[in-house]
Amino acid sequence: MTRVWIDGAAAVEVPDGSTVLETVRASGIEVPALCRDERLTPQGSCRVCLVRAAGGIVAACTTPVSDGMRIDTRAPESRDAARAALELILSELPPRSLEVPAERSELVRTCLHFGITGTTFPPTPHERGLDHSHPYVKLDRDLCIACGRCVAMCSEVQGTFALELAGRGFDTAVSAGDGGPWAESPCVGCGGCVDTCPTGALSEPGLLDHRPISRTTTTTCGYCGVGCTLDVHVRDEGIAAVTPHRTAPVNRGHACVKGRFAHGFTDAADRLTEPLVRRHGRLERATWAEALDLISHRNARIRERHGPDAFALISSARATNEENYLAQKFARAALGTNSVDNCSRLCHAPSAAGLTAAFGLAGGTNSLDDLDRADCILLAGANPTEAHPVVGARIKQRVLHGARLVVVDPRRTELAGLADVHVRCKPGSNVAVFHALAHVLLREGLVDEEFLRERASGRAELAALLHDYAPDLVSAVCDVPARELLSAARLFGHSRRPAIVYGLGVTEHAHGTDGVRALANLAILRGSVGEPGCCGILPLRGQNNVQGASDMGALPDLLPGYQAVADPAVRDRTARIWRHPVPAEPGRRIPQMFDAAISGRLRALHVIGEDICQSDPDTAHVREALRSCEFVVCHDLFLSRTAQHADVVLPAASFLEKEGTFVNFDRRFQRVRPALNPPGEAIDDFQILHRIAGALGTDLGCPTPSAALDECASIAPLFAGVSHERLDREGPLHWPCRAPGEPGEPMLYLDGFATRSGRAELAAVPYRPPGDATDDEYPMTLVTGRRLEHYNTGSMTRRTPDLRLLPEETLDVHPEDAARLGLSDGAAVRVTSRWGAAVLSARTTRAVRPGEVFAAFHFPEAEINALTSSHTDDVTGCPEFKVTAVDLRPAARPDQQR
Ligand SMILES: Nc1nc2c(c(=O)[nH]1)N[C@H]1C(S)=C(S)[C@@H](COP(=O)(O)OP(=O)(O)OC[C@H]3O[C@@H](n4cnc5c(=O)[nH]c(N)nc54)[C@H](O)[C@@H]3O)O[C@H]1N2
Ligand SMILES: Nc1nc2c(c(=O)[nH]1)N[C@H]1C(S)=C(S)[C@@H](COP(=O)(O)OP(=O)(O)OC[C@H]3O[C@@H](n4cnc5c(=O)[nH]c(N)nc54)[C@H](O)[C@@H]3O)O[C@H]1N2
Ligand SMILES: [Mo]
């Protein structure tokens, strides 16, 4: 610690290396600075934070404290110098720089601090003009003071390096890319630059006019599973802006283009605002009473004729925990069936199964914060700079600060481009790749012997299996040179604190659970789970609340907190609390629901916030299932393709309009709070379920979201200590949290694994080829996944200016294949698989391997899931979205075909 005196007061002790500015601000003394942002390294460019210290005038933001230093923030000479610096800055700015509201301009606040209303220097304002080319980031160059904060934000936090200070002296201003229009630069629209700008030179559409904000609500983002805390600023009952919460534990004042800017869907013209019911084959407007009446009649008839086995409910990973809790209770208590599932089935069900088998619990083993310590990150089948941008940026920063990076991915993703080793394996070959790495770890003694002896099982069986997985042998299976497998294994094996981060490239396969087990083997061999200081294994769970939907028991075999439906003691206890019996027979999974509908055993399907016609594989099969159902109910924000097939469509509130909690990808419960009222007669899924249950004559209890979480806590020991009241008081909580006084467990298994044996279980699972294989007729492999700008079915992001950033889906094709097939950029290409056909625009890129193509599923017109197959993971039923054998042919443009 360092001792300093400030303004003649008693000495204070501050950590060594603190700056003068941090020190005085920590003592509650206001020293303004225009170029300082705690998220960034000090810029020292504005000279407004001048104070007297150590006998001279210093810039407080860049000067470190030294022992015995006397700091004087009130010395007239430093104050005059600071004022002069500020007036000099002002002399170069147009008068409108002082018209920005104080809460949005540090410049204005700083002028207020010094009591400055103008400049005594001759005014020489810039005339450099605006750049409003980007839909979200709006630049007024004349307000730029070249403080460098935006540039630092873009490099030190976001890691995109899109910005620089260009020009000389007086003319220096921020510039994006090579100085052309912002929209054409590599900017990814994270908004960090806007957020840090002290003058309003960088702004955003909703803040360009100066009308005041009426209220700000702190909530959790409803896009991906990272779980960023956002501040939603509302004006005229609409969203003016969303900014990242500065002190949020997960995102630490950062966000991405979707959470930050893609909120325009809330007041889209085609938002559902009233119920619709099918009359004479057409969906027509109806009152809530009419819709509920129809549901109760049709349900009664189906129940009478076919019993509870004829019902199924798909719950929503977009919805809150409380809504999912209520949804599974509704299925079990009101419909009398365990046939309730959620999109985890399409996504990370193999993670839940694989991690439970290996370690005991269905979540990642560590918290995101542990990545800050990792010296080597193994990133497998995940593309976080697009799909989890805030995590992607953190990984990037770790790598820029020296951590080693091994990426296993068939595609050259942004992070693959930065990796020490990119294992560019053939899609579907993960198990072989991970086994090859394990083989090398064992062969070269790069394993934690003590951990394996004391805390793991299954070593002998695994070692025996791994005989056949030497890199030389695996090389042909995964199409990766043996030396690359070897160097990947050595990097991972020699690191001191290895971390494993993975995504759908591991799970969405015919052997996805095996992939997770084989990956978990690597963590176990290195003893990097359940040990102090370890970094563990982290699945990048996808939806905002996919972890929570499963945690809450929206699963056919599990009650809240992963308690088996098949266990009579669990059922009894739950039934006593619910005062409703819990059906004993485990229910149907999503793919089984479709099969049962087609075979006539399932008659009524209730779908909450899931567009199965666009997001499930083999669309033709899904459509047939929907047509086969007698009665389909759907809640959504929009008339999705699925809703178009429904008999009753109910208008739902979005995450910005509701109350509750989400669980993010690293098991944190976080609060969701309404910033807006839902439009028209839309209500949240919580109230919708209550209304329907009421119409069916069932009282679901728990009248409020808070009461629902309390009831869940009383049923599920894993969440016993979690409540709204506590989250409001203490902030996010990791599960397990077994009692109100317990802090939650960011790192699992320090006291033992939760498997039956109490040990981590190695898995000797052999590699098996993918379900859908290429042949002469379908010689190429289609990989599907995500793009930064759009989210899943795109229902929300396509209704925002993100559409300008990415207006259509493309089929990414390697230039060699494109040349062979005679495809140029933008050419229409007809893709056929054994399951269906689609027409897309070709985009040539070396990001894909020859013989492989890539597309996302964000646009309904692109019909990507008409192509994907019905092959599923043999353990969990997760679709094989990552491998589809296809054939490509040049085609007429889709619009010319109609
Ligand atoms: N912008 C955006 N963000 C999103 C979403 C979105 O739609 N858009 N969706 C959210 C959801 S629901 C989810 S689940 C997550 C998904 O997040 P991710 O799992 O990161 O996303 P994907 O793009 O589906 O797949 C990741 C990578 O797996 C690779 N891959 C494919 N096959 C294989 C293989 O056989 N082996 C290996 N090792 N890799 C393979 C792909 O090339 C791809 O780069 O993203 C969430 N975040
Ligand atoms: N080819 C291919 N297909 C895939 C994947 C892939 O990698 N490749 N990934 C799969 C994965 S991982 C996932 S998670 C799924 C995602 O698939 P979905 O869950 O179907 O997609 P989303 O677009 O996230 O949202 C579904 C619907 O929920 C609505 N919605 C949003 N918020 C709410 C709400 O609060 N309440 C209600 N009632 N509705 C709401 C949206 O308007 C949208 O229509 O897609 C899967 N499909
Ligand atoms: Mo997902």
UniProtKB/TrEMBL annotation:
Organism: Saccharopolyspora gloriosae
Family per similarity comment: In the C-terminal section; belongs to the prokaryotic molybdopterin-containing oxidoreductase family.
Stated name of the protein: Formate dehydrogenase alpha subunit
Taxonomic lineage from the root: Bacteria, Bacillati, Actinomycetota, Actinomycetes, Pseudonocardiales
GO molecular function, one term: formate dehydrogenase (NAD+) activity
Highest taxon, organism lineage: Bacteria
Residues in 4Fe-4S Mo/W bis-MGD-type domain copies: 214-270
One annotated Gene Ontology cellular component of this protein: membrane
InterPro entries: 2Fe-2S_ferredoxin-like_sf, 2Fe-2S_ferredoxin-type, 4Fe4S_Fe-S-bd, 4Fe4S_Fe_S_CS, Asp_de-COase-like_dom_sf, Formate_Dh-H_N, Formate_DH_asu, MoPterin_dinucl-bd_dom
Classification via PANTHER family: NADH-QUINONE OXIDOREDUCTASE SUBUNIT G, RESPIRATORY NITRATE REDUCTASE
Residues annotated as domain 4Fe-4S ferredoxin-type: 135-166, 178-207
Keyword RNA-binding carried by entry: no
Keywords associated with the record: 4Fe-4S, Iron, Iron-sulfur, Metal-binding, Repeat
